[in-house]
Amino acid sequence: MQHQLKPFAEHLLENLNHLLGIVNEKHPTIVTKYAETLVAQYDRLWTGKYLSLDNEDVTPLVEELTHLSEFPHLARYFLNYHFQLLNLPKETKWETEKVEITQRTYLRSALFLRYTNLQALTSVIDRSKAIELYKHHISEFQALDPLVMHEDCTHVALKELFDRELKYIVCHGESANKGIFNKGFKLAIEHTTMRGNSYCIGGCESKNQ
Known about the structure:
With 209 residues, the protein is mainly α. The protein has one domain. It is built from eight helices and five strands, in the order E-H-H-H-H-E-H-H-H-H-E-E-E. It has helices spanning 5-26, 31-45, 59-62, 72-85, 103-122, 127-141, 152-157, 164-172, and strands at 2-4, 98-100, 177-179, 185-191, 201-206. A three-stranded antiparallel beta sheet has the order 3-4-5, with no helix packed on it. A two-stranded antiparallel ribbon has the order 1-2. Strand 3 (177-179) and strand 4 form a beta hairpin. It starts with a strand and ends with a strand.
């Protein structure tokens, strides 16, 4: 199926902006260091073989994002890595063009970005504090997030990542529950590959139960 790239990229930027806001709210003295750590991480991961925004002005993309607008260079590195994860050729017109991308590829990109965001946070503050902060971010942002996890998330998207605890958190969130489109329900994960099972499985249940 062909997808427009810009709406998904904008959603990922909103996610990052929200995370920066949480960091700024709870630990304002580290937000700049965290942003620079993310830049270094994404720069290290980027190979330069795919579409990049190095020669483009990214300010219009972040000017309405309160926290990310202070670090437009971070948005550039973030999107460069995102485009790499999507395997986009350098000539792709990402703001207007529709591209054939599988759901697994989209999922892999979103989860790798989240994993890197959390991993960088653990290098800036105490690991346990970073995890709790990230869980807080998830709990606030997940109602707006259309990414629903399924068995592909760990079999395909996360098997390359090494930190078992961090990838479990970015995949399933706090208490292994992931918000879905209907805010009145949650996805209760009963089995996960992170816990040694060969697959992930879960069902919907009312939040009011």
